[in-house]
Amino acid sequence: MDNNNYQSMDVDGGRPVKMWTEGVPVEESARQQLANTARMPFIYKHIAVMPDVHLGKGSTIGSVIPTLGAVIPAAVGVDIGCGMMAAKTTLTASDLPDNLSGIRSAIERAIPHGMSPKTRHHRGRDEGSWHTPPAPVDAAWLTLKDEFDAICLKTPSLKNTNNYRHLGTLGSGNHFVEVCLDETNFVWFMLHSGSRGVGNAIGTYFIELAKKDMRRHVMNLPDQDLAYLEEGTEHYDDYVEAVSWAQKFARMNREVMMQNLIAAVRTVIKKPFETHVEAVNCHHNYVQKEQHFGRDVLVTRKGAVSARAGELGIIPGSMGAKSFIVRGKGNADSFHSCSHGAGRTMSRTEAKRRFTLDDQVRATEGVECRKDAHVIDEIPMAYKDIDAVMHAQRDLVEVVHTLKQVVCVKG
């Protein structure tokens, strides 16, 4: 297999950086972040960079960071286990009603989404959580509860999170639920979310703990958000346990949402249909132990998807753009990874400054979705060209299905 379409960036005093970014822009600030991370003493072989790479907190989004004997909590981030789920149905485009607003409304009723402004800074139930969680949430929570209780014995501050009421909910920002059509007009359901409030609490707690450890040992870091936990220490073991649980929560969160999404669509479309004809559920913000180049390595994918040979993954475009179901090629140099999306080209603040509501309406023509000032930061023009992103990673994945959304629900 030809692995030569990556670009190499040598880093003084650090490991090499291999970048699958041919034909896509990479901001200078992101290159500096990559160099900072590559200088950490526990990086294994090199850092792999996906074509959706852009500036993140501490480490770039769209990077794969293999480590030996240490983990960087801020590289995993606070939306632990964030990822995608997609399921093909036996419905076709002709089975959808001419007016899709009924489907969108049914989904919005079935899946809590968004966040109350007051709860961004204050504790309490927000509009994006359940008031009374339904039976599927209860059943799913029972599979998670005992392990969470054990984690709380070590970290009591996590007890007060909205974990149970957030299970099966969407959140806000770039999280979404979509109804899509593939290249042969079959209907797919697709959604994007993670570990919600409890993942944020776990990530934030251990990021601050790592920073305290660094200050205690007078570590000179190029960026304080590269603070790390060393293997064999109590905090390391506690973090690995907590982050593994948050990743289970995130996967279960998507499963419960998919159940409720399917049930919601059945209330509108009376024709019997099957789902999970083809289904994918994959993380793109996570850490796990894997074997690469003959060694057991801790691999952090910060905005990247596992793409082992034959493994299915999801690469969504922006709101209004194409998305892709892909099959991994098992590229060793990428640590068997691919991008997690198109990748932003500008901040949310800049997108709101630069674009208008009219721009948003034009960019999402043909999609039944919110068209208001609060989602301008998700406008397609704030993201990289998904076709260029896919071309840049042609050695990492092959396209199995091309999806185009017809309904999009955002928080």
UniProtKB/TrEMBL annotation:
The protein's UniProt keywords, in alphabetical order, are:
GTP-binding, Ligase, Manganese, Metal-binding, Nucleotide-binding, RNA repair
Coiled-coil residues:
none
Among SUPFAM superfamilies, the record links this protein to:
Hypothetical protein PH1602
Q: Which domain of life is it from?
A: Bacteria
One protein family per Pfam:
RtcB
User: What name is this protein filed under?
Assistant: 3'-phosphate/5'-hydroxy nucleic acid ligase
Q: Which reaction does it catalyse?
A: a 3'-end 3'-phospho-ribonucleotide-RNA + a 5'-end dephospho-ribonucleoside-RNA + GTP = a ribonucleotidyl-ribonucleotide-RNA + GMP + diphosphate
- List the signal peptide residues: none
Q: What is its EC number?
A: 6.5.1.8
Q: Which PANTHER family match?
A: RNA-SPLICING LIGASE RTCB (PTHR43749)
Q: Sorted alphabetically, which Gene3D superfamilies does this protein's record hold?
A: tRNA-splicing ligase RtcB
Names of the cofactor(s): Mn(2+)
Output the InterPro entries linked to this UniProt entry. Answer: RtcB, RtcB-like, RtcB-like_sf
